[in-house]
């Protein structure tokens, strides 16, 4: 596979802005530590945390290591001590020049220990969107090092709709070029999402039936078994569509449905993603099911959270069907569904094939190709097999590629590890390009405005119990688009023939 990127090798400082926050603690620092442990970070790297909170290095180290796993292993513990020695903290504001001048002075002090002329700075914004613009501007004005490479990594949310996204992107672009900007959608760093390119384009057997002639419907599902506990106030401003569908699931959809890119280069891949997204019209109201969880099994409902506005109609569950108007996919429903407080943790793609032509077979199960993104990565194809024995009867079984079994000793890196490494390498393939965002917002903005009551009363989400599969309306919703459940009698992993 082609790689011709500008990798940051030596003399690099990674500056984590928002270092006192949740994302930094839970994702950024554990990812940086794991990369450090495996020797993937540039030689002599320094990591600088920056935030408003005043704390000393001891307190900072305590915070950033609280989510690091495996520290009872002496090797890990030793590496962690090394890691701490190269990460330091400095506090400052997000909206004033002197704070950033101070940060720059501190970076220069650290850099004075580097050999040679080159200095590279990677700014990771683990910050709320309200300060993206001033921070990006101050970083450019006060902390940009002209004698080296500068990169800025930004996290979603990239706006709240088409207009605000354009405003945000436009403001960031005034200071940072597209080449210097890395917009994270961490789903693009997940192993099974990256695997889609290989599964699709390196297997003639699969690509032959990858279209409307063979496929009846596709579901891309995100399920989380916990609610918005503690984040209700934040979540209420965004809702499940902005949180999951407009970004993570749409990214998965675009890779699943795009045409084959000319090469593995970032621009070739993203050109194809944009092309397929442009063939999707805005989501229709009657192709959408909205839900909100209510208390059940001793768990609180969404509205029981004190940080959620009284009577909020913010959806915590959404299923919505997208249509792709191109020759490959015309007429195939793509159902994106995501919800909080459901019965399990699961993210999967389920491609359901059409019925076999009737005649010699009646009422047999459809083939399904399931790509399980998490937990426990797997690809399995549900297919009919002759019941072993003298009877001529078809039963549903599966061809199963479970990663834990097939790749027993493989280490699957966390999405954030893989993406930070890509940013250091200068590889944009798994980051979101500006025009991708634009077209993604075009698809979802009308429905979001409807939900927010911009053009009339807001729709009321249907209730579903905490810990359930979602609203009871889900089954009829999915059936409407042709999904058929595998006939009962399907058993995994072993079929008990005596019971058939
Ligand atoms: N490699 C592996 O690990 C493999 C595992 N298996 C396992 O075999 C089992 C069956 O496989 P599979 O058919 O793919 O998965 P499921 O039976 O879990 O789901 C099949 C579909 O039916 C829906 N569904 C699940 N339960 C209900 C219900 N009670 N009422 C209505 N709809 C429901 C699911 O939707 P929704 O997700 O929205 O609830 C999903 O779309 C699963 O436990 C699977 O994990 C099978 C093959 C390989
Ligand atoms: O972006 C987000 O993703 C997480 C789920 O990420 P995962 O890697 O654990 O699948 C979700 O919990 C959060 O609400 C959302 O903002």
From TrEMBL:
Stored NCBIfam families: zwf
Protein name per the record: Glucose-6-phosphate 1-dehydrogenase
Broadest EC class assigned to this enzyme: oxidoreductase
Pathway: Carbohydrate degradation; pentose phosphate pathway; D-ribulose 5-phosphate from D-glucose 6-phosphate (oxidative stage): step 1/3
Catalytic reactions on record: D-glucose 6-phosphate + NADP(+) = 6-phospho-D-glucono-1,5-lactone + NADPH + H(+)
Enzyme Commission number: 1.1.1.49
Domain of life from the UniProt record: Eukaryota
Residue ranges of domain Glucose-6-phosphate dehydrogenase C-terminal in the record: 197-482
The keyword Oxidoreductase appears for this protein: yes
Alphabetical list of InterPro entries matching this protein: G6P_DH (IPR001282), G6P_DH_AS (IPR019796), G6P_DH_C (IPR022675), G6P_DH_NAD-bd (IPR022674), NAD(P)-bd_dom_sf (IPR036291)
Lineage: Eukaryota, Fungi, Dikarya, Basidiomycota, Agaricomycotina
Family: Belongs to the glucose-6-phosphate dehydrogenase family.
Annotated source species: Ceriporiopsis subvermispora (strain B) (White-rot fungus)
NADP is among the record's keywords: yes
HAMAP family according to UniProt: G6PD
Domain (Glucose-6-phosphate dehydrogenase NAD-binding): residue spans on this chain: 15-195
UniProt-listed GO biological process terms: glucose metabolic process; pentose-phosphate shunt, oxidative branch
Gene Ontology cellular component annotations, sorted alphabetically: cytosol
Pfam families: G6PD_C (PF02781), G6PD_N (PF00479)
